[in-house]
C-alpha cells in the first residue's frame, strides 16, 4: 500500500511525496489521518537557512508529529483501541503530515465526542505545554510571564490562567499578542515597542514575577535577561522565582550571585514515556509512581478542549490540502507575522 506524506527538501521547500506504507508493528495502530498541525519552530526551523543556501544533495525528509484521524487497523498486543475509533496521535516519525500513519498505542488517545479532528491535532503541543506548566509548579494568584507566543507559548499561557495565575505574554508579532489576549492573557508586551521590565513592573504593581516560561528555540539571551530582571526581588537585592525553558532555547548566563535565588528548570517534551519504545508500545509505568505520563497528559488536554476550558481553534490561521503542502510551509516560513496554527488535511 502507498501513502502520501508531507516533507521538506534541501531547498527548504515543502513537498508531497508518495511512499510505501510501513508494516504495522507490535503495539501500533494504523490511522487514516483527517488533520495534522504544523509546529513551525521544530519542524521548519532549518527552512530559512536552506532557502538562502540550498543543497540539492539533501533528500526530502518527511515531517510532522501531531495529527488525528480514524483507526483502520490494530496491531498485535493492542487492547485499548477498536477499528473506527477517532484518535489523536503524536510522536516524531509517527504522527506525520500524511494520509495514513502507524502510531504506537501509548502515543494515541481516543478523541472525545465534541472535539473536532482539527482541535485534536493540537494534542502533542498541548501536552508539551501542560508538562512544562507542571514543571513550573504555578500557585493560584501568582504572576507569570510567557516569553514567545507561538503555539506552545499560547497553550502555556492558557494552562497558566486555568491554574488561577495572572499571566502576561510577550512576542514581536502583533498577531500573536492579539491571540494571547483572546486566550486570556491579562496583558501583553510587544517586543521593541515598550520597556518590557517597566511594563511588567507596572502590571504586577511593583511586586515582580513569580515565574516565567521561555517557549521558543534559538538565541534566548535577551528573553532570559528580561524575565530574570522582572522577577520579584528580596530586600537584600537578590531575584527569586522560577524560570522554565520549554523548547530549544540557547542561554548564556552566570550563576551564583549572578542569578540570585532563581530556579532554572527544563521541560522536556510531553511528560514521561515519550521516546521510551517499551512504554510507547503499551508497557505502562506504575501509575502510583508516574502519575502524569505522556498518555495521561494527552487525555487531559483533550478533556479540557471538550469542556471548553482550553481553546485552540482561534490559534489556527490557515488550512491546506496535503497536495498543497508547499503552500503550508511557505506561509509559515515567508510570512511568520501572518500565520500561526496551520492545519493540513489529506
CATH architecture designation of the largest domain: Alpha-Beta Complex
Kindly report how far apart the N and C termini lie: 16 Å
Please give the domain count.
2
Largest sheet: 7 strands, mixed
**Number of separate helices:** 11
Order of helices and strands: EEEHHEEEEEHHEHEHEHEEHEEEEHHEHE
Count of individual beta strands: 19
CATH class wording of the largest domain: Alpha Beta
**Stretches where pLDDT falls below 50 for ≥5 residues?**
none
What is the CATH topology assignment of the largest domain? Quinone Oxidoreductase, Chain A, domain 1
Radius of gyration: 20 Å
β-strand percent reads: 25-35%
> What structural category characterises the helix and strand content?
alpha/beta
Mean pLDDT over all positions = 96
CATH superfamily of the largest domain: Medium-chain alcohol dehydrogenases, catalytic domain
Q: Based on CA inertia axes, which overall geometry fits? A: globular
Helix content: 25-40%
Amino acid at each position: 500500500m502507498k501513502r502520501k506524506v508531507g516533507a521538506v527538501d534541501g531547498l527548504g521547500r515543502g513537498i508531497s511525496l508518495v511512499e510505501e506504507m510501513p508494516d504495522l508493528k507490535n503495539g501500533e495502530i494504523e490511522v487514516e489521518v483527517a488533520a495534522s498541525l504544523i509546529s513551525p519552530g521544530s519542524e521548519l526551523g532549518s527552512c530559512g537557512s536552506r532557502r538562502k543556501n540550498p543543497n540539492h544533495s539533501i533528500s526530502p525528509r518527511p515531517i510532522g508529529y501531531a495529527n488525528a484521524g480514524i483507526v483502520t487497523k490494530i496491531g498485535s498486543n493492542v487492547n485499548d483501541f477498536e477499528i473506527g475509533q477517532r484518535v489523536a496521535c503524536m510522536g516524531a516519525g509517527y504522527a506525520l503530515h500524511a494520509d495514513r500513519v502507524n502510531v504506537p498505542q501509548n502515543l494515541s488517545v481516543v478523541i472525545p465526542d465534541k472535539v473536532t479532528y482539527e482541535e485534536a491535532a493540537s494534542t502533542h503541543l498541548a501536552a508539551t505545554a501542560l508538562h512544562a506548566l507542571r514543571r513550573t509548579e504555578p500557585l493560584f494568584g501568582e504572576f507569570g510571564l510567557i516569553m514567545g507566543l507561538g503555539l506552545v507559548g499560547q497553550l502555556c499561557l492558557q494552562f497558566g490562567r486555568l491554574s488561577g495565575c495572572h499571566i502576561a505574554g510577550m512576542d514581536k508579532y502583533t498577531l500573536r499578542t492579539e491571540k494571547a489576549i483572546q486566550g486570556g492573557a491579562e496583558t501583553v508586551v510587544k517586543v521593541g515597542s515598550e520597556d518590557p521590565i517597566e511594563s511588567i513592573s507596572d502590571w504586577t504593581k511593583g511586586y515582580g514575577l513569580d515565574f516565567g516560561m521561555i517557549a521558543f528555540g534559538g538565541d534566548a539571551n535577551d528573553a532570559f535577561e528580561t524575565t530574570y530582571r522582572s522577577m520579584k526581588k528580596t530586600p537584600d537585592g537578590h531575584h527569586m522565582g522560577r524560570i522554565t525553558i520549554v523548547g530549544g532555547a540557547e542561554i548564556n548566563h552566570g550563576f551564583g550571585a549572578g542569578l540570585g535565588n532563581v530556579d532554572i528548570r527544563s521541560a522536556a517534551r510531553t511528560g514521561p514515556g515519550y521516546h521510551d519504545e517499551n512504554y510507547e508500545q503499551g508497557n505502562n509505568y506504575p501509575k502510583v509512581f508516574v502519575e502524569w505520563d505522556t498518555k495521561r497528559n494527552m487525555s487531559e488536554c483533550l478533556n479540557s478542549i471538550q469542556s471548553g476550558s482550553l481553546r485552540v481553534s482561534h490559534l489556527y490561521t490557515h488550512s491546506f490540502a496535503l497536495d498543497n503542502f508547499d503552500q503550508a510551509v511557505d506561509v509559515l516560513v515567508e510570512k511568520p507575522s501572518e500565520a500561526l496554527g496551520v492545519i493540513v488535511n489529506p
